[in-house]
From TrEMBL:
Provenance organism: Powellomyces hirtus
Signal peptide: none
InterPro entries, per the entry: Galactose-bd-like_sf, NADH-UbQ_OxRdtase-assoc_prot30, NDUFAF1
Protein's recorded name: NADH:ubiquinone oxidoreductase intermediate-associated protein 30 domain-containing protein
Predominant subcellular localization, coarse grouping: mitochondrion
Gene Ontology terms: biological process: mitochondrial electron transport, NADH to ubiquinone; NADH dehydrogenase complex assembly
Lineage: Eukaryota, Fungi, Fungi incertae sedis, Chytridiomycota, Chytridiomycota incertae sedis
Annotated PANTHER family: COMPLEX I INTERMEDIATE-ASSOCIATED PROTEIN 30, COMPLEX I INTERMEDIATE-ASSOCIATED PROTEIN 30, MITOCHONDRIAL
Keyword tags: Chaperone, Mitochondrion
Length: 268
């Protein structure tokens, strides 16, 4: 009875928190520039409890994978990848390990998602090894197997690095295969974040401090913030106007600029 009351209390607290946050956001109508949106930070054991570890051992393989808190209060994903297929196992291939967040807890109104549309990059402060890692994002989709992935190589194995991956560079995959028909990821409804290794035998280790959605000082989601006198040319490269040059002159007559303030009726 007491456990049930605690669960219900937590459920209604989450629901009230959601109403409060959404009301504040609606009143402010805040769609302006923000530096970052924290998603995960690992400081205590409870921060790791909402993550799931998996490997080929779940289906009869020999890989080992573990998830724990370091003495320095960071998350550590470690273990051993084995590509050997045990005799008598009902699998054809082996050699996989991964860890991912669980979906956020349900509220009275909906299941919250991470809305990253106002941010350009997924940023991860981590300490990796020499292996090729995959960063995995799952969003709401009619196909449960859809996963957006990006490869990560650490430049300084064994040292802390901040990896910044543009959200638009993630590639759609399904069941481990890149899809020929790529569709845009719904960045307003990110459900889970994860990391994985495939068919790289031996010991592995990935230490994670935090995960955030971030902007640079010159980005707002997929938009670039330009200083006065700057513009993007037809190839998307950043340019500066020459002294006394107008934007209309720089872009040429083939590009129409709004609002069109010309009064003589000639083409812009």
């Amino acid at each position: 009875m007491a456990d049930g009351l605690r669960v219900m209390s937590s459920y209604f607290k989450r629901s009230w928190s959601y109403v409060r946050e959404e009301t504040v956001a609606a009143v402010k109508f805040d769609t302006g520039w923000k530096k970052e949106m924290p998603m995960f930070q690992f400081r205590k054991v409870e921060d790791l409890e909402d993550w799931i570890v998996g490997s080929d051992a779940d289906i009869g393989g020999l890989s080992e994978a573990y998830w724990g808190l370091t003495p320095e209060n960071s998350a550590l994903f470690w273990g051993t990848i084995s590509t050997k297929v045990p005799e008598g196992a009902k699998i054809d291939r082996s050699g996989y390990a991964g860890v991912r967040s669980q979906q956020r807890p349900l509220t009275l109104f909906h299941r919250p998602r991470y809305d990253t549309t106002l941010f350009r990059y997924l940023a991860i402060r981590a300490k990796g090894d020499t292996r090729q890692w995959f960063v995995n994002l799952q969003t709401e989709s009619i196909y449960p197997s859809y996963l957006w992935q990006h490869r990560v190589y650490f430049q300084r194995p064994g040292e802390w690095e901040v990896i910044m991956i543009p959200f638009r560079d993630f590639v759609l995959t399904s069941n481990g295969y890149v899809q020929k028909r790529q569709i845009s990821m719904d960045r307003s409804k990110i459900k889970t974040v994860g990391f994985s290794l495939v068919r790289q035998p031996g010991d592995f280790a990935l230490e994670i401090d935090w995960i955030k959605a971030v902007n640079s000082p010159r980005t707002l989601g997929d938009y670039d913030i330009l200083e006065p006198g700057e513009y993007l040319d037809a190839q998307g490269s950043l340019r500066k106007l020459a002294p006394g040059q107008s934007l209309r002159e720089a872009l040429g007559g083939n590009i129409r600029i709004f609002p069109d303030n010309k009064k003589d009726g000639s083409p812009p």
